[in-house]
Design a protein that fits this description.
The protein is α+β, with helices and mostly antiparallel strands. Helix content is 60%, strand content 14%. The chain has five helices and seven strands; from the N terminus they run H-H-E-H-E-E-H-E-E-H-E-E. The strands form two sheets. Strands 2-4-5-7-6 form a five-stranded mixed β-sheet, covered by helices on one side. It has a two-stranded antiparallel sheet with strand order 1-3. The longest helix has 126 residues, at 2-127. The protein starts with a helix and ends with a strand.
Length: 306
Amino acid sequence: MNILIIGLVLIIVGLGIALFFQVRASKAQAEDGQQLLNDYQRRIDELDKLLKDYRALEQNFDNVGQGYEQALLAFDKMEEEKMTVLKAKEALEKQSSELLAAKNNLEQAVMKKKELIQQSAESILQKIDYTLPGAVQMAMQVNNILNLNDVEMETAIECDDNCMAAEITAQAIRQTGIDRIDYLRFVNRVSEEAQALMLFTNQAMVTRVLVNLLDNAMKFTTSGTISLNTTTDGTNVEFTVEDTGEGIPGEDTERIFEPFVKLNSFFDGAGVGLTVARSIARRLNGDLKLDATRASGARFIFTLPI
């Protein structure tokens, strides 16, 4: 009986031990299974994240692709506009070049005509016989034509004449006929130093300056005296034209040298005589000024290098 009980106890103990180990093994197996499930879930989560990242990249790629296409379209449009602008620029440059060529041709043609007019007019002045009636009037008309022809000219004047200062003043007096006017007194003074003074200049142009100054004095002097004085300091010759006329207001001392300015519209002329006179003086490396210090009348000073 005791043996039976001991056997049963041993059997129960063995079964308990076996069950313990079986439960333990089952628990370990369950833990391993849970670990496998956790690992599997983690991999699934990682795959989901990778899938989301892939879809995000795919979306970004699509967006980049659309932006790239839009950029290409914008670039193509810019290229088309650039070509249009370049063509317009080429057309404008061609038109500008043609206009410039036409302008140069026109300026050359005008210059040739001006030179022809000047040569013809100067030839007429040389051939005029001042002993004949109307000769002075003809000379002054020719001078007016030369003045209008010479307005706004800026080209240098060639100097190739050796002439005496007294000869130039005599020619200007003869051309204007100022010494024959009976309603005023004309005085021509040449200093002793200037009596035999030789100038290397353009005689016709210097004469025109004096003619314009004498003509201006005659227009604004109805009585009294007009004088032409010639002096030299050894470096320059100075021609001074003075009159006892109505004078020039202080505010007009420079304005009178502007083209087409006339202080008195009752007198003939286009208002370019003094303009051309100063232009010629400066193109001969000299100058023409109005003495603004005079209280009455007018005094013009024409200086010229010897």
